[in-house]
């Protein structure tokens, strides 16, 4: 394989278009197609799923994307070592893997600040759960991850950067308004239908830990439904399907509008850390350092890795 083939591959993946990739590379579309055909033949894999509207990475293409990007970045570093002038058309992209809560409520702010400081750098966001973030980092699918819990692994560094409050939420009904006025502990939740996130969710893991710290085990809960998306949990609680433990970030609007009632776990609240995730064995990339620097400034944390 050649660097030209890999650059065509990454440009197509970024633009979801053979035509746009060809324009960026100042070559013809048939040439780009030939690069990809030869690369696919050499690897024995289909790298893209092509439709009439756009081009998407296939599962095989997705698995090598970050490797290809890293090879191009290394080639740029070698070239820049012997050249003072910067190539204006040089490819640079940061890939972020994020679980749902940081992805929905913190990543937009992070990327807005990032783009203002590094307007020449593009970014790609992979949305998954906390376990998926660790898999993306260890499989070289992302430069940096953002996760809602610390997963047990010796392959990743977990760098805390945000204190996220978890609260119990219910529908805003007369029943729960009375409980809010009279309850002196959390024992009442054992009798309620409880809605959970999926097993790989950081919110679920941390909610279970916090409830156990208040003397309530997961086995004592009447788990009535499990959902993969935060918004589905929120809407289910609003519609009376059950109660749930949620990040305050996810339900502030609904609480303010009176759609949900909140119950703090204690007078001081219940908190979990949100983490940046990097791979242990490899050197932190420049793009990763840039993101970490933005996060450190936004959330006023000291990061020793910088």
TrEMBL record:
Residues 1-58 form the HTH lysR-type domain. This is LysR substrate binding domain protein. The keyword Transmembrane helix does not apply. GO terms for molecular function: DNA-binding transcription factor activity; transcription cis-regulatory region binding. Belongs to the LysR transcriptional regulatory family. The lineage of its organism: Bacteria, Bacillati, Bacillota, Clostridia, Lachnospirales. The keyword Transcription applies. Keywords: DNA-binding, Transcription, Transcription regulation. It comes from Catonella morbi ATCC 51271. It holds the Pfam family LysR_substrate. InterPro entries: LysR-like_Sec_metab, LysR_HTH_N, LysR_subst-bd, WH-like_DNA-bd_sf, WH_DNA-bd_sf.
């Amino acid at each position: 394989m050649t660097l030209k083939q890999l650059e065509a591959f990454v440009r197509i993946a970024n633009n979801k278009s053979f035509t746009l990739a060809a324009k960026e590379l100042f070559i013809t579309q048939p040439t780009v197609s030939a690069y990809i055909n030869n690369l696919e033949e050499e690897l024995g894999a289909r790298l893209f799923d092509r439709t009439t509207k756009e081009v998407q990475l296939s599962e095989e293409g997705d698995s090598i994307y970050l490797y290809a990007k890293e090879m191009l970045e290394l080639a740029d570093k070698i070239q820049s070592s012997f050249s003072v002038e910067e190539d204006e058309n040089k490819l640079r992209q940061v890939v972020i893997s994020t679980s749902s809560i940081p992805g929905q409520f913190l990543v937009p702010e992070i990327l807005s600040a990032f783009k203002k400081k590094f307007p020449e750098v593009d970014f790609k966001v992979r949305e998954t759960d906390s376990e998926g973030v660790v898999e993306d980092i260890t499989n070289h699918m992302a430069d940096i991850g953002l996760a809602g819990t610390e997963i047990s692994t010796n392959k990743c560094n977990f760098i805390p950067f945000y204190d996220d409050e978890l609260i119990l939420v219910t529908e805003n009904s007369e029943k729960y308004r009375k409980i809010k006025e009279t309850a002196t502990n959390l024992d009442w939740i054992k009798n309620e239908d409880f809605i959970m996130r999926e097993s790989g969710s950081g919110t679920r893991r941390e909610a279970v830990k916090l409830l156990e710290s208040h003397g309530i085990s997961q086995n004592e809960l009447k788990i009535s439904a499990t959902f993969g998306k935060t918004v589905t949990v929120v809407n289910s609680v609003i519609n009376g399907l059950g109660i749930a433990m949620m990040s305050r970030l996810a339900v502030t609007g609904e609480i303010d509008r009176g759609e949900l009632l909140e119950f703090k776990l204690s007078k001081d609240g219940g908190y979990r850390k949100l983490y940046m995730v990097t791979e242990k064995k490899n050197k932190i990339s420049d793009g990763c350092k840039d993101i970490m620097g933005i996060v450190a400034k936004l959330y006023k944390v000291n990061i020793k890795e910088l």
